[in-house]
Design goal:
The strands form four sheets. A seven-stranded mixed β-sheet has the order 3-2-1-4-15-16-17. The protein has a four-stranded parallel β-sheet with strand order 5-6-7-9. The protein has a four-stranded parallel β-sheet with strand order 11-12-13-14. 37% of the residues lie in helices and 23% in strands. It contains 13 helices and 17 strands. The chain has two domains: 110 residues, Urease, subunit C, domain 1; 307 residues, Alpha-Beta Barrel (TIM Barrel). The structure holds guanine (GUN) and fe (iii) ion. Fe (iii) ion binds next to strand 5. Its cofactor is Zn(2+). InterPro entries: Amidohydro-rel (IPR006680), Metal-dep_hydrolase_composite (IPR011059), Metal_Hydrolase (IPR032466), Metallo-dep_hydrolases (IPR051607). It holds the Pfam family Amidohydro_1.
């Protein structure tokens, strides 16, 4: 069945270019974009049109890194830096997810907010608990949102009861991957996929990393983790692995840098060797500017990585980040790049267009053909009433409207939200 949607359409097929289609139509079949046209072809004249004239239609945002379990802690503990924050706030909260009622309450609230937000796809870490992670997976399936979800692995440098036994960690991770892949066989349209999620090098023993590296090959699984977020963290990794060149080369040695299938969050303090490795392996960088500010982790040299043609998306990193609203993260990515420029004039600030691209198609590439309205892309879209629905005569250009949307926290009305052509119900969960 053909779906025809009318409105003011904008998307960024690459970081240097917008496609701007004022009062136009996007044609979608089975969730996939057929074309964007100014005039409807004759063959479509008798077809129903979803008419959103004077509303903005843009690709949904991709949140490339967040911790669903840390949702209740969002905004708490930012007087501390990463390692202390993990110990004082994050680990104690995550350990409560052994209780299913607690997990259900927090994940329900999280999914309700994620559904209401401008995010259509997300790469999510849960906790190390298998039952609670299964619950999150089933809730995400029901929500209609697209996601990679991982059970966290952590078998060193935490206290019981959060600390895992190495064998259990391996077996539970394998079990979840098998279950989710079996589900995919019977539901090939599922939008929720497994992803291996070793917390970070200090949390995972060499034995566990070895097993996960093998599992990634055996089950063809993607991987997500953290890299070069904080200077004390980096010094700790050096202490734990004195024989490796650097943090990134530890992951490399354990086969955890799978080309096109791995996300490393933060990547703030990479050495030139690490930059080369991450680029050569085609690893996705999840830029998490809000978390990087809140935990005083540092300013990632976004311009440097962008101009080096690295794969980059934007992540909220909830609960290090303090909002699910991807607009705020796009704003901060630009603002921090301007601060970086003010101290180092050789790195030009990142533009609205570049930042918008990163938050849509940039991260969307991890999911396949996602984050754009080019032919063949999955139709993930937001229909937004940004105040011109009545067709006021002073309606600014599409580009200006996007700039305003992105650069402010002005309340806007999300009229519809689609993932692969299906509308997301934003109030079905309480
Ligand atoms: N490094 C290891 N675990 C975490 C986490 O939960 N949040 C952040 N921001 N960094 C991490
Ligand atoms: Fe994180």
């Amino acid at each position: 069945m053909l779906k025809i949607i009318r409105g003011d359409i904008l998307f960024a097929p690459d970081k240097n270019r917008y496609e701007l289609w004022e009062d136009s139509y996007v044609l979608v079949k089975k969730g996939i974009v057929l074309s964007v046209v100014k005039e409807l072809p004759l063959s479509c004249w008798n077809q129903p049109v979803e008419d959103f004239r004077n509303c903005l239609i843009i690709p949904g945002f991709v949140d490339l890194h967040l911790h669903a379990s840390q949702w209740p802690n969002m905004g708490i503990g930012y007087d501390f830096q990463l390692l202390e924050w993990l110990k004082k706030y994050t680990f104690p909260l995550e350990s409560t997810f052994s209780d299913m009622e607690t997990a259900r309450k927090h994940y329900e609230s999280f999914i309700h907010e994620l559904s209401a937000s401008m995010t259509t796809r997300a790469c999510i870490l849960a906790t190390r608990h298998l039952p609670a992670t299964r619950l999150l997976v089933s809730m995400l399936r029901e929500s209609g949102l697209g996601a990679f979800v991982g059970k966290v692995n952590m078998d060193r440098n935490a206290d019981p009861p959060l600390l895992e036994n190495t064998e259990d960690s391996i077996e539970e991770t394998r079990l979840l991957a098998q279950e989710m892949q079996e589900f995919e066989q019977f539901h090939p349209d599922t939008l929720v996929h497994p992803i291996l999620s070793p917390r970070f090098v200090p949390s995972t023993t060499p034995e566990l990393m070895t097993a996960l590296g093998k599992m990634a090959q055996e089950y063809d699984l993607p991987i997500q983790s953290h890299l070069d977020e904080n200077l004390d963290e980096i010094a700790w990794v050096r202490q734990l692995h004195p024989g490796d060149l650097d943090f990134a080369h530890v992951y490399e040695r354990f086969h955890l840098l799978k080309p096109d299938k791995t996300i490393m969050a933060h990547c703030i303090h990479m050495t030139e060797d690490e930059i080369r490795l991450i680029k050569d392996r085609r690893i996705f960088i999840a830029h998490c500017p809000s978390s990087n500010c809140n935990l005083a982790s540092g300013i990632m040299p976004l311009r440097k990585y962008l101009d080096n043609d690295m794969l980059i998306g934007i992540g909220s990193d909830i609960g290090g980040g303090n909002t699910l609203d991807m607009r705020a993260h796009v704003q901060l990515a630009m603002q921090m790049s301007r601060l970086y420029y003010s101290a180092n004039r050789s790195f030009k600030p990142v533009s609205v267009r570049e930042a918008f691209y990163l938050a849509t198609k940039g991260g969307g590439r991890f999911f396949g053909k996602v984050g754009s309205f080019e032919k063949g892309y999955e139709f993930d879209a937001l229909v937004i009433d940004d105040g011109y629905k009545k067709g006021l005569p002073d309606k600014p250009s599409l580009e200006t409207r996007l700039e305003k949307l992105i650069n402010t926290d002005n309340p806007v009305l999300i009229i519809k939200k689609y993932v692969r052509g299906k509308e997301i119900q934003r109030s079905s969960l309480k």
